[in-house]
Design a protein that fits this description.
2 domains, binds NADP nicotinamide-adenine-dinucleotide phosphate, alpha/beta, 257 residues, 7 strands, seven-stranded parallel sheet
Length: 257
């Protein structure tokens, strides 16, 4: 299938590691012109350089997506370099782990800024450019916690539902100019997973083995498996898909919806 992404300008945020990195690399393999960001300038420079081996125009900018001024600058620089923007993938680090008893007001505020407001700022700045492209797409990377809360991830469980509401609302408001979809990763082996495994009896391997028992496909996902779904949803091959929430979890969530 031709995804028709050659030379299409895309921005993937939080993309020097894990799921975001895999998405950026998959876009580059499809010959899209991909821009990335993350907070570490060194990591951004290294990842942009490795992306350029796949697609010569790839670029990157340091940006903390919690910072609205930095997000404005990020979108401005991306559009300046590429001459426009057709596709935005909204991603950020996961909010702090914790339970009702452990989460402080500061952590709640941080999770709100990181998980919800980053999406608001990115979409606000990108919207006019996505509209102008004539084939705009937004994909938000969220979590299966919107379908089934994950114990020990209270902040994710609570705030990702707000992102879900945002996406559903914008899919209607932005149609037909911009499609808006959400992907829900289940369990993937990234640094985020290592964070969740901290202090687990038996360590990371035991954590992965134990969590895999609940996954019908019997294993954690490879970030590239999620990336292919994100890239498909961003492409003209998904031109009739908007307002959708697509789960990529090896069958973990048993809910029929
Ligand atoms: N991995 C999973 O199994 C899984 C499952 C469900 C949901 N998710 C969610 O998917 C998202 C990505 O997860 P991941 O596993 O890929 O995480 P990861 O491996 O820890 O990578 C996080 C990436 O985000 C960047 N980042 C973090 N905070 C940022 C900020 N404020 N501004 C800009 N960039 C930032 C990091 O670079 P810097 O540190 O340099 O900024 C890094 O590139 C998270 O929201 C996570 O909760 C993951």
């Amino acid at each position: 299938m031709d995804l028709e992404l050659r030379d299409v300008p895309v921005l993937v945020t939080a993309a020097t590691k894990g799921l975001g990195q895999a998405v950026a690399e998959e876009f580059a393999r499809e010959e899209a012109r991909v821009a990335i960001c993350a907070r570490s300038a060194d990591a951004v420079a290294a990842e942009a350089s490795s992306l350029r081996k796949l697609q010569g125009d790839a670029t990157g900018f340091p940006c903390d997506v919690e910072d609205s001024a930095a997000v404005r600058e990020l979108i401005g620089k991306t559009v300046e370099v590429f001459g426009g923007l057709s596709s935005l993938v909204v991603n950020a680090g996961g909010p702090p782990v914790g339970t009702w008893k452990s989460c402080t007001d500061e952590q709640w505020q941080h999770a709100f800024d990181l998980t919800l407001m980053s999406a608001v700022h990115l979409i606000r700045e990108a919207e006019p450019h996505l509209r102008a492209s004539g084939k705009g797409s937004i994909v938000l990377i969220s979590s299966t916690s919107v379908r089934q809360p994950i114990h020990g991830l209270l902040l994710s469980n609570a705030l990702r539902l707000a992102v879900q509401g945002l996406a559903k609302d914008l899919a209607r408001e932005f149609a037909p100019a911009i499609r808006v979809n959400v992907v829900l990763p289940g369990r993937y082996r990234t640094d985020r997973t290592l964070q969740r495994a901290a202090g687990y009896p038996g360590g990371i391997e035991q954590f992965v083995a134990d969590e895999s028992k609940d996954i019908p496909l019997g294993r954690f996902g490879d970030p590239r498996e999620l990336a292919k779904l994100v890239v498909f949803l961003s492409s003209s091959a998904a031109s009739y898909v908007t307002g959708s929430t697509c789960t990529a979890d090896g069958g973990l969530i048993a809910s029929p919806l």
